[in-house]
């Protein structure tokens, strides 16, 4: 039951942050490109890399922190279903180039962001591992 509460609490925070990020990017960039979904997925990947690196190197809190911050908060913050819907909507509007670009930027950018997060932890911790 404690694990479920950790995931739910983190999910509430992550979902709220996702909503606010979506509103901010919509105001900044308009509705023409799914900038909110892209932003949360790339930032979420970076944060997941940082979290994974920190937990692996410090063992800090172990499972509880992983559940609260990883499964809960970052699970609520990032969204694969919205990514899929945005991609299909672009393709159905006849904008296949934008849809393909979005997929490539999201997937490659997410991997690069996650790796960057892990490398930041490695650099800060001073270990070569």
TrEMBL record:
UniProt catalytic activity: fluoride(in) = fluoride(out)
Main location: membrane
Residue intervals passing through the bilayer: 37-55, 67-85, 97-121
Annotated Na(+) binding sites: 75, 78
Subcellular location: Cell membrane
Membrane topology of the entry: Multi-pass membrane protein
Biological-process GO terms, alphabetical: cellular detoxification of fluoride
One Pfam short name: CRCB
UniProt superkingdom: Bacteria
InterPro entries reported for this sequence: FluC (IPR003691)
Keyword annotations from UniProtKB, A to Z: Cell inner membrane, Cell membrane, Ion channel, Ion transport, Membrane, Metal-binding, Sodium, Transmembrane, Transmembrane helix, Transport
Regulation affecting activity: Na(+) is not transported, but it plays an essential structural role and its presence is essential for fluoride channel function.
NCBIfam families reported in the protein's UniProt record: crcB
Family stated for the protein in its record: Belongs to the fluoride channel Fluc/FEX (TC 1.A.43) family.
Name the UniProt record assigns to this protein: Fluoride-specific ion channel FluC
Organismal lineage: Bacteria, Pseudomonadati, Pseudomonadota, Alphaproteobacteria, Sphingomonadales
């Amino acid at each position: 039951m404690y694990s479920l509460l950790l995931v739910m609490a983190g999910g509430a925070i992550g979902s709220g942050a996702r909503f606010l990020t979506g509103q901010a990017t919509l105001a900044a960039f308009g509705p023409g490109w799914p900038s909110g979904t892209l932003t949360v997925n790339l930032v979420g990947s970076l944060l997941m890399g940082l979290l994974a690196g920190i937990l692996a190197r410090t063992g800090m809190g172990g499972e509880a922190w992983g559940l609260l911050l990883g499964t809960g908060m970052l699970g609520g913050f990032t969204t694969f279903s919205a990514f899929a819907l945005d991609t299909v909507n672009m393709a159905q509007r006849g904008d296949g180039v934008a849809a393909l670009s979005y997929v490539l930027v999201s997937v490659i950018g997410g991997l690069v962001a996650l790796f960057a997060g892990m490398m930041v932890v490695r650099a800060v911790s001073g270990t070569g591992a």
